[in-house]
Design goal:
Blueprint (H helix, E strand, L loop, with lengths): L1 E2 L13 E5 L6 H8 L4 E5 L5 H8 L4 E6 L2 H9 L4 E5 L5 E2 L6 H11 L4 E4 L5 H9 L4 E3 L14 H9 L6 E3 L8 E4 L3 H5 L25 E2 L13 H8 L5
Parallel strand pairs: 1-2, 2-3, 3-4, 4-5, 5-7, 7-8
Antiparallel strand pairs: 6-10, 9-10, 10-11
This protein binds flavin mononucleotide.
The site of flavin mononucleotide has 23 residues, from strand 2.
């Protein structure tokens, strides 16, 4: 998904999605305008809302909502969403789910009839297979793609991702004003001592070329355990789907 504010290419060779964080939501007509031509519009970090969903539908897109509980998933369905993403506490980035993904997925597939995507800590083909067997219609993977050769991730952050394990991640409210997130401490000294990162106000992790990567959040899920090297995105997909063929 392209985050809000990123210029979308005029002609994409694949299917594009557009993600909106609810605390930063623009006017409804701006959502519709920006979503024109994308296949999926997704909202995160806010109560599902029918008018917001309609703004995505008005652009001709499917509308998804990333949620942190089965109750919130049912609210997304009532608001008119086509897809729900259930995010477990294992996830990197902003973390909405307070429970393990397996528990949340079980409750969500009972609570909704729309397609359900499982997210959080997914890093291996075995985990992908298990989640689909447990009733997910698809999985979402974030952290593993930070080490894709196509990703524009700052080299210091990338090196830390490759060197780190799940135990190095912390779930903290310190990353941003928006709420809880999971990531790595930017300082290796802090990581080795298991310390929390200092308060960080920036919402986005550091890209290549930035001078002060340590002042930004180094998001990472428990799936960082499976980030071992830089790989082409297509090779990561081939690995993760290798038990589905
Ligand atoms: C670096 C990073 C940035 C993220 N940014 C967003 C975002 O802007 N909007 C959003 O809805 N989710 C965001 N997420 C959360 C993902 O949608 C997803 O829940 C998470 O990556 C799943 O866990 P995983 O990283 O262990 O695969 C982000 C995750 C990471 C790791």
């Amino acid at each position: 998904m392209a985050p809000m504010g990123v210029d979308l290419p005029d002609q994409s060779p694949g299917v594009l999605g557009l993600g909106f964080l609810v605390p930063y939501l623009p006017a409804l007509e701006t959502i519709t305008e920006r979503a024109c031509g994308v296949r999926v519009v997704e909202f995160f970090w806010g109560e599902p809302d029918a008018r917001t969903v309609s703004a995505g539908h008005a652009a001709g897109a499917l509308v998804s909502w990333q949620v942190g509980s089965a109750v919130e998933a049912a609210a997304a369905q009532r608001a008119g969403c086509d897809i729900v993403v259930i995010q477990g506490v294992e996830a990197g980035g902003h973390v909405r789910g307070a429970k393990p993904l397996d528990v949340l997925l079980r409750d969500t597939v009972e609570a909704v009839t729309i397609p359900t995507v499982a997210a959080g800590g997914v890093g291996t083909p075995e985990r992908v297979r298990a989640l689909l067997d447990a009733g997910a219609d698809a999985v979402r993977v974030g952290t593993r793609f930070l080490a894709a050769s196509e990703a524009n991730v700052h080299p210091d952050y990338l090196a830390a991702l490759i060197a780190s394990s799940a135990a190095d991640t912390v779930l903290t409210g310190h990353f941003e004003t928006m709420g809880g997130g999971r990531g790595l401490c930017a300082s290796s000294e802090h990581r080795s001592k298991g310390l929390r990162p200092p308060a960080i106000a920036a919402p986005c992790p550091p890209r290549c070329g930035l001078d002060t990567p340590g002042t930004m959040p180094w998001y990472a899920g428990l799936s960082v355990d499976h980030v071992h090297k830089i790989q082409a995105a297509a090779d990561i997909v081939a690995d993760l789907t290798s038990l589905l063929r």
